[in-house]
Amino acid sequence: MGEWFTREIADAGRLRLACFLIAFIAGFLFIRFSVRMIRRQVRWWPGNVTPGGRHIHHVVFGLVFMCVGGVSGLAVQNGSSGWAAVTAAVFGVGTALVLDEFALVLHLEDVYWSEQGRLSVEVVFITIALCGLLLLGLRPLGLDDVAGDGFWAIVVVLVLDMLVASVALLKGKVWTGLIGLFIGVVAVVGAVRLARPDSPWARRRYLPGSRKERRAQVRERRYRRPVQRLGDWLSDLIAGRPSIKP
């Protein structure tokens, strides 16, 4: 295991990314455990930080960690040193604390335990998936595959990959579009298939009552919603079930 880590992570220049991802996951799991204990009002767990009666959200602590880890990391020249690993881990913890309250920052109100708060968990899951792909050695837009093919080859690949990924995102397929930046065929599949009925693409291009709109709605009920329920179940298992109705 140690030899694999040295060969595939440290020697490959991915130490910082690995430490960031490990700390990010650990930070997210810890803060979700913490808020669930506070929600249950268990006596043995510390409560919210409320100096002078003001509730300090953990996104504030996350910003501090990100500033400390990010600025300190810029000062570390050796990417394989222990200090590089520490600063990346601090940045990862801070990022987890910030993204765990992403929905709160987006709406500028405390929606943590509402249905809108699920967005924070989705953003965290997406971040973990994208960092995992980077850690496996994949690079967005396929740049590694065309790095030696000349300027115009890189331009063509960039334009094509960005185009199909953007179409997939406009069709409401967030996971497909983002993963498609790393694996082009995934973006192509998302771009050519029907859009989700509530997506910007469908609102602009599918006329009300049209065949495409009806097909999109059928696909949403038959395929997307079961997957969404599974995702919500996993989110509730890890992060807790929303309890505040919109």
From TrEMBL:
Key words, A-Z: Membrane, Transmembrane, Transmembrane helix
Transmembrane annotation, as ranges: 15-35, 55-76, 83-99, 119-138, 150-169, 175-195
Keyword Membrane assigned: yes
Organism superkingdom: Bacteria
Official protein name in the record: Integral membrane protein
Organism: Actinomadura chokoriensis
